[in-house]
Amino acid sequence: MSCPFAKESLDKLKQFVDVCVVNPDVLSLPDLNFFKVFIESFGGKVPPPSKMSTEAPAADKPEEMTPEVESEEESDLELDTEGCVEPDTLNENQKMGDPNKEVSEEDSDRSSEKRMEAMQQFSEGNHEKAIELFTEAIELNPSSALLFAKRGQAYLKQTKPNACIKDCSRALELNPDSAAAYKFRGRAYRLLGEWEKAAKDLRQACNIDFDEQTDEWLKEVTPNAKKIEQHNLKLERKKAEKEEKEKLERARKAREAHTKAGSASQNAEPNATPKSDDFYKLLQDPEIMAAFTDPEVSSAFADISSNPANFYKYKNNPKVMALITKLSGKLAASGIGPGGFPGFPGGFPGFGGMPGGGAAPPTFTPPDDDNLD
Fold first, then answer.
1. b/e map of 113-126 (b: 16 or more CB within 10 Å)?
2. Whole-structure pTM value
3. Is the dihedral of CA 168, 174, 178, 182 positive or negative?
4. d(Cα 366, Cα 350) in Å, to the nearest integer?
5. How many domains does the chain divide into?
6. Using CA atoms, how far apart are residues 336 and 339, in angstroms rounded to an integer?
7. Which terminus of the chain faces fewer neighbouring Cβ atoms within 10 Å, N or C?
8. Is the Cβ–Cβ distance between 155 and 163 less than 8 Å?
9. Same domain flag for 225 and 297
10. What digits encode the pLDDT tens for the residues 135-189?
11. Looking at the domain assignment, is residue 188 inside a domain?
12. Is residue 8 part of a domain?
C-alpha cells in the first residue's frame, strides 16, 4: 500500500511532531485542541502544561534598557572655543581655473607677474584686491599649488575659513607636500572649531617645513584635540563593553532556552534515550508508515502507549506483532540501544530483545493432561 500523503505534507507533519516532542506544552494551546483530542481518542495522554510555560519567571522578563543620554556624555567634554568663528558660506563661484589647461610659457610669466602684484597688495593689507590678483594668476596657471595656498591665506585674513579650506585642499591635490597649504588649512579648521583636523594639518606642516608660527598654532589646538581624542576612546570603549555585554546576554538566553527545551523533552519522555531523534526518523520509514495507516495497528499502538501492560492483549495479533518485529529489527540495525520506544512509557514490556523490553515474555504453557477425558 502506497502512502496516501505527499512527501511535503509528511515533512511538515514530522516538523510538527518534533516540536511537540521537544515542547509538549504546545498541545495545550487552544488552536491545537483538535490534535489533543485526536491523541486522547486513541487512548493517549497529553501531559498537563508545565508551570514554567504558564508562569514565566521574572528572570525571563525583558530587561528595561536604560537609554544612554548622549547629552550627559557630551557634557563631560569641555572645550575652550575662544577664537572660533561662524562658518562662512562657501561660494560656488570661487574660481579655481581650468585644471586641464595647457600652460604656455607666456601664461606662466604673466601668472608670476600677477602673483607679485597680489603679494604686494596682501602686505599692504588690501586682502580683497590681493584675492582678485591671485584669482587672475590662477586662471593663467591653474596647476600652481602655491597660488592656491596664497589665495587661501588671503581668505583666512578675511575670516573665510571655508574658502581657505577649499583653496588649500586644491593646493594639496596639486602638491601633497605643500607645507603652506597644510598650515593655512589647519588654521582655518581651528577657526571652525574642528580641533582634530586642525592639529593633524598643523602637525603635518611642521613635519614638512617647521616654522614658529605653525608650531604656535599647533600648541594652541593640541589641548582640545587631546580632549576629543580621549573622549572618543572612552566612547569606543563603552560601545565595545556594551556590545560584549549584549553578546553575553544573548548567549545566556540561548543557554536558558536550550535548557528549557531539554527539560520539556525530559518531562514529556521520561524514559526516552538520547537517541530518541533516531527513533522518530525511523518512524519515517515507508514500510513503518504504511503499517500505521492500518486503523487496527494504529489503535493498538495508541492503546499500548497509554498502558504498556496492554501489550499482552495483542501478542496474538499478527499485524501488531509483525510491525513490532519489523521495528525491532530496524532498531537493532540502527544501533539504538535499550531504553524503550520514545513516546511509549516503559517500552514494550515482555518483548525480548527490544529496546525497553527487558526479559522475554513469560511462556504460557497448557496444564498437564490428566488423561481424565
1. ebbebbbebbeeee
2. 0.50
3. positive
4. 19
5. 2
6. 9
7. C
8. yes
9. no
10. 999 999 999 999 999 999 999 999 999 999 999 999 999 999 999 999 999 999 9
11. yes
12. no
